[in-house]
Amino acid sequence: MADEYTNNIDIDKENLLAIIEDMPNQLLAGWQLAESINLKGNFHSIVLSGMGGSALAGELLKIYLDETVNKIRKGNPLRVIINRSYSLPPEAFELNCLNIISSYSGNTEETLSVFEEVRQNNLTCLGLTSGGKLLEFCLQNKLPFIQLPAGIQPRMGLGYGLTSLLRALYQSGLIEDQQPKLEEVSLAIKNQLVRLKKNGQEIAVAIQGKTPVVYAPVQFKALALIWKIMFNENSKTPAFWNYFPELNHNEMVGFTNSQANFHLLLLKDEQDNSQNLKRYLATTEILQDFKIGAKIIEIPEGEILYRLFATLQIGCFASYYLAINYGQDPTPVEMVERFKSMLK
Question: Per-residue pLDDT tens for 293-313?
Answer without folding.
Answer: 999 999 999 999 999 999 999
